Amino acid sequence: MTIVINMRELDERKMRIAARFIREGKLVAFPTETVYGLGADALNEAAVRRIFEAKGRPPDNPLIVHIADFEQLYGLAEEIPEEAKILAEKFWPGPLTFVLPKREVVPSVTTGGLDTVAVRMPANEIALSLIRISGRAIAAPSANISGKPSPTSAEHVVDDFYGRIECIIDGGETEIGVESTVIDLTSSPPVLLRPGGLPLEEIKKVVGKVEIHPAVRGYAADTAKAPGMKYRHYAPNARVVVVEGRRERVRRKIAELIEEYRRKGFRVGVMATGGSYDADAYVNLGKSEEEIAKNLFKALRELDKKNVDIILAEGIEEKGLGLAVMNRLKKAAGYRTIMLK
Ligand code: AMP
Ligand code: MG
């Protein structure tokens, strides 16, 4: 049985119901500013194991632990470097996750067997209140069946998990729409493991040099430190093809491909930042990087519901949130990209 709690505004009385589920080792999906999370008590091994089962998530793909106060970090991480303090001061609560050496109390199921733990403080009142009222750190990966596009609304969570988890808190659409930026603070300089809701440029302004893990752009030779990056991800049922290059050329190419695929009898969907196309389905992602990030996962889910066979996606520049958007798009495409000069 799944209880769906409608919470467009924070309601502490209702929140106590959800918080009790967390304390009892049950699963609660909740909104954050990035995407919806599928939460359980991070230090309760059996509860965390249920997250993996519900999602069908590979056991070596670690979870992010969510906290509501900086002090909570001391209970999870063995060492807290100066950079973590400076970055937290500037960006927490917010879409930035630190990877730090874990304390022994953190079960290895939570960290996918690694001796490091990923932690962040979400900038969402509902998420913060759930953490505070339950009195627990909450492990929460994105609340989607493993491999599917991440959920940006409670409806998406209902589609994937209704009847399979105890509780879904409906807090409306998420603001940012892509997951948090993950940065490894166990090495110096820090390493970007996953681009996300906080642009890399912002982090560099604070800590100077940041290395970029090769998996970020898709060259995943060594994924030991970025385990999440090796899996097929964010993928709708349709085959996705990303077309990158100068805008006019990209649009012309997409128009050509639509014709070509339709001639072969495929149903074709398009995801673009403008232009007009003679496709079976079309989603306009918007113009700014922020709008595109916000609409991306919803668009992939919507196009799937229209039963298209192919999704042609317009690539965008890899700056600001564009780096996170392109990382998700390329993964959704299984790295099928067409690069136009
Ligand atoms: P999700 O919450 O579904 O976006 O997945 C969490 C992601 O955070 C994982 O797939 C990893 O990319 C990253 N992550 C979590 N814990 C660690 C860790 N200890 N080391 C490196 N990356 C991590
Ligand atoms: Mg995920």
Structure explained in plain terms:
The protein has 2 domains: 3-217, DHBP synthase (Alpha-Beta Complex); 239-339, Rossmann fold. With 341 residues, it is of the alpha/beta class. Strand 9 and strand 10 (191-194) form a beta hairpin. It has 9 helices and 16 strands. The model has no long low-confidence stretch (mean pLDDT 95). The chain has helices spanning 12-23, 45-55, 82-91, 125-134, 154-161, 200-207, 247-263, 289-305, 322-332, and strands spanning 3-6, 28-31, 36-41, 64-66, 96-101, 116-120, 138-139, 167-170, 181-184, 191-194, 211-212, 239-244, 268-272, 281-284, 310-314, 337-339. 30% of the residues lie in helices and 20% in strands. Helix 1 crosses helix 4. The N and C termini lie far apart (53 Å). The structure holds adenosine monophosphate and magnesium ion. Residues 141-142, 150 line the site of magnesium ion.
Architecture (CATH level 2) name of the largest domain: Alpha-Beta Complex
Low-confidence stretches: none
What is the count of β-strands?
16
Name the CATH class of the largest domain. Answer: Alpha Beta
Strand order of the largest sheet: 1-8-2-3-7-4-6-5-9-10-11
N to C succession of SSEs: EHEEHEHEEHEHEEEHEEHEEHEHE
Q: In one word, what is the shape?
A: globular
> What fraction of residues sit in β-strands?
15-25%
Helix count? 9
Going by CATH, the homologous superfamily of the largest domain would be DHBP synthase
